[in-house]
Amino acid sequence: QKEVEQDPGPLSVPEGAIVSLNCTYSNSAFQYFMWYRQYSRKGPELLMYTYSSGNKEDGRFTAQVDKSSKYISLFIRDSQPSDSATYLCAMSEIGGGFKTIFGAGTRLFVKA
Amino acid sequence: NAGVMQNPRHLVRRRGQEARLRCSPMKGHSHVYWYRQLPEEGLKFMVYLQKENIIDESGMPKERFSAEFPKEGPSILRIQQVVRGDSAAYFCASSPPGRPETQYFGPGTRLLVL
Questions:
Q1: What pLDDT is recorded for position A95?
Q2: Is the per-residue pLDDT at A80 higher than 80?
């Protein structure tokens, strides 16, 4: 079993839709949870990060962490064609070298 | 404020040659991470370094791969005697000390082994 599981998609939605992206994990020691966006042949771009459980909102993006279920989500409101990219979840422990584990990424297509 | 810089952006090597990938972190960042990304796969952690010190190299292959981050100059990921399976995109990220949640990535180096 992988430490971080993420549905690779692709996920195709119409412009304006609410998008829900999710990851599950098995390591209860993870404390930092991040979401990255990666356009084709580019480096990942940090979107949001949260520490431990809870929600965090930034513009059209909302990140949620449910540590009891080992489940994290990223919601994108009013999706735009420019949101079409691969979204990667990532997680780190405190200490232990801060090794960061990434999900495989979900490819999102937003149709105009 | 320049972002993370990596060079070269593309590198072609023949089997058996050496590949050297360079990474200059963001200004004010003293910690560097290297990742490898194979086509259609996520990022795989390789190594985490601070200047003159390897913090965690648990993701590095045991042979042919090495990394350093000297007191002066960029971080270097070195692959000796490359094989076709080493063909991948190699990304470097940097963060402030102890802040793995704020890693900023460079554009990557795409290595092709012929």
A1: 65
A2: yes
Are B48 and A99 inside 8 Å of each other by CB? Answer: yes
Beta-carbon separation of A97 and B55 below 8 A: yes
Set of chain B residues whose Cβ sits within 8 Å of the Cβ of A65: none
Q: Which residues contact residue B29 at a Cβ distance below 8 angstroms, ignoring those fewer than 6 apart?
A: B4, B94, B95, B96, B104
CB proximity list for A72: less than 8 A, separation 6 or greater: A22, A23, A24, A25, A33, A63, A64, A65, A66, A89, A91
Distance between the two ends of chain A, CA-based, in angstroms?
37
Radius of gyration, alpha carbons of chain A: 14
**Location of structure tokens 């422990």:** A93
**Pick from B48, B105, B106: CB nearest A98:** B48
Over residues A9-62, the pLDDT tens digits come to 899 999 999 999 999 999 988 989 999 999 988 999 999 999 888 899 999 999
Distances (CA, A) of B111 to A11, B59, B64, B84: 29, 18, 15, 10
Please tell me what DSSP assigns to residue B82. -
